[in-house]
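RECORD TYPE: inverse folding
INPUT: structure tokens
STRUCTURE:
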């Protein structure tokens, strides 16, 4: 199945109106770090204004007079194949495209970073499918949701991770490229059992990242799972209990401590 734009687009888009001024746009540029903003009227996309449009223009000039108009824009739709959109971006040089529905309502924005992220994550659905099959075969009723989870509410099931891979996951988090973790949520309490993505989760914990994208498997049970019991035997209560080691050799493994600002 092809990956759709809707799966990776940003839905909460910062927009401006045609009556805003160049001064307003400059203020938004400074506040957000973005380089362009869709121009919307009554929910409809009517243009886009970028940093290039306002260079040398009077601060009081209205956005309507400097923006690129809708008829001259490249846009996409939620059901478009994300790789097709990536090719369009590559050919045109645009770093992001507005996403509109059939009635030209702005519903999101997709960036070249989102396209890259969609490819990094492409192995996750297979892992997820295997885990789902396992729990279904054990007789559990379940549902799966993709959402953000609180890092501090994650309970690990793996007692060590590797230093070199941890550094890689820290880099991915800083660049917004980390794939979702996989976690299980039962009726037992307000926590998530971490199944896949321990390096990403520990990286987020050590960097002070509050939330992570996750595929959450909701199990309709209040019984303690086998992986929970195993975690208890290893004294794993939080991500702080996961050791960072240089190798798999338990006799020579050196525990490495990373500060939150380790990556600079």
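DESIGNED SEQUENCE:
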């Amino acid at each position: 199945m092809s990956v759709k734009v809707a799966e990776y687009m940003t839905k909460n888009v910062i927009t401006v109106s045609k009556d805003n001024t160049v001064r307003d746009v400059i203020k938004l540029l400074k506040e957000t770090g973005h380089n362009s903003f869709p121009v919307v009227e009554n929910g409809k996309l009517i243009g886009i204004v970028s940093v290039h449009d306002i260079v040398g223009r009077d601060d009081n000039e209205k956005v309507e007079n400097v923006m690129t108009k809708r008829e001259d824009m490249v846009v996409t739709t939620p059901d478009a194949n994300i790789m097709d959109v990536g090719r369009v971006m590559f050919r045109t040089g645009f770093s992001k495209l507005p996403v509109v529905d059939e009635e030209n309502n702005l519903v999101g924005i997709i960036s070249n970073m989102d396209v890259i992220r969609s490819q990094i994550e492409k192995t996750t659905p297979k892992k997820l499918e295997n885990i789902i099959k396992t729990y279904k075969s054990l007789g559990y009723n379940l549902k799966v949701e993709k959402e953000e989870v609180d890092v501090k509410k994650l309970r690990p099931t793996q007692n060590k991770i590797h230093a070199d891979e941890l550094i890689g996951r820290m880099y991915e988090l800083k660049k917004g490229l980390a794939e979702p973790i996989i976690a299980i949520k039962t009726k037992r309490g307000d926590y998530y059992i971490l199944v896949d993505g321990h390096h990403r989760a520990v990286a987020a914990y050590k960097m002070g990242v509050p939330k992570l994208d996750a595929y959450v498997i909701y199990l309709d049970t209040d019984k303690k799972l086998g992986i929970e019991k195993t975690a208890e035997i290893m004294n794993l209560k939080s991500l702080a209990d996961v050791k960072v080691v240089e190798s798999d050799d338990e006799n020579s493994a050196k525990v490495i401590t990373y500060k939150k600002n380790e990556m600079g």
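NOTES: Residues 124-137 form the longest helix (14 residues).
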